[in-house]
Write a structure and sequence with these properties.
- The protein is α/β, with parallel strands linked by helices and 279 residues long.
- It has a single domain, classed as Rossmann fold.
- The protein is 38% helix and 19% strand.
- It has 10 helices and 12 strands.
- The protein has a 7-stranded mixed β-sheet, sandwiched between helices. The protein has a 3-stranded mixed β-sheet with strand order 1-3-4.
- A hairpin with a 5-residue loop joins β11 and β12.
- α1 runs antiparallel to α10.
- The protein binds S-adenosylmethionine (SAM).
- S-adenosylmethionine binds next to α4.
């Protein structure tokens, strides 16, 4: 086993961790009181090493799996997935002998639908909170669609708008590499993004056939609509724009749920952070 390299995380990643930590605590408090629920799971699909280094302070800070393990009352099961073997090994060490922890060193796009979501079926009176936190656009729509259809799973997910802008939504869409188009199709679920995310400017004279990429806010709105209309999540609050140190939006943090109470709690949490500036 080689030594794990801890990720350095910026101010907005620390905010994301705070948001997810607060909701995970509220989720467990509510679900633990529902006598009809048999099990409720915490699923971290791009789990990381469990510990990061804060760019702000240089100190070690807990990652999302550690925050989840600290929630009281505990979740019935924890499922942590990371493709990086060293990070998965580190998670194994951190989890120690905490019961009901599963760690997978696999691609979450395969392991979630095949082995994890199946443990959170509505008909079995099970529920799950799932964090989908990739660094790039490497989350397949099939994962989102499966979670949406199950009606028993709530998700936080990062929409990596900076990756989409850098690699796909170019001013000249014809020069985008085919491999990037395929990534985008897998992420969006089909090729419909091509018509949705490029629009003709208003007031264009007849005969001009120009299209422009829509704004970041419009890209996020289109994905929010997809989470509701295509994946079938009933409640999808307006996402949180997460920024880098220059104030540019790197990703949108989405929450999607079949549950109105969950969405209300998350909207309130989002609103306490929404107007913070860059640090
Ligand atoms: C943003 S970090 C996770 C941070 C973590 N959620 C936290 O907040 O503490 C993303 C992680 O996803 C892992 N990863 C990338 N692609 C993956 C995949 N297809 N399946 C599972 N893990 C993946 C990377 O190794 C990396 O550790």
């Amino acid at each position: 086993m080689s030594e794990v390299r801890y990720d350095e995380i910026g101010y907005w990643s620390e905010i994301k961790l705070d948001i997810v930590r607060k909701y995970a605590q509220a989720y467990s408090s509510v679900l633990s009181k529902q006598s009809s629920i048999r099990k409720y799971l915490y699923i971290d699909a791009f789990a990381g090493a469990g510990v990061h280094i804060s760019k702000l302070t240089g100190d070690f800070v807990p990652g999302s799996p550690l925050h989840a393990l600290n929630v009281q009352p505990p979740f019935s099961e924890y499922h942590f997935i990371d493709l990086d073997g060293d990070k998965a090994d580190n998670l194994r060490q951190l989890a120690g002998d905490v019961p009901n922890v599963w760690i997978y060193n696999e691609d979450c796009n395969s392991v979630l639908p095949a082995k994890v979501f199946t443990r959170a079926r509505w008909d079995d009176f099970n529920r799950a909170l799932c964090l989908l936190d990739p660094y790039a656009m490497n989350l397949d729509w099939e994962v989102i669609q499966t979670a949406g259809l199950m009606k028993s799973i709530e998700i936080f997910m990062n929409f990596m708008v900076m990756d989409v802008n850098m690699n796909v939504l170019w001013n000249n869409p014809d020069s985008v590499q085919p491999s990037q188009l395929m990534r985008m199709d897998a992420f969006w679920g089909d090729h419909s993004w091509r018509n949705t995310l490029y629009q003709k400017p208003t007031g264009l004279l007849p005969g001009f056939d120009i299209e422009e990429k829509v704004s970041n806010a419009a890209v996020a709105k289109a994905y929010q609509d997809r989470l509701k209309r295509v994946a079938g999540f009933k409640y999808v609050p307006d996402p949180m724009p997460m920024r880098n140190s220059r104030g540019a939006i790197v990703y949108y943090l989405f929450f999607a749920s079949p549950n109105e109470t969950g969405a209300k709690i998350v909207s309130d949490i989002f609103n306490t952070y929404r107007d913070r500036g860059a640090v």
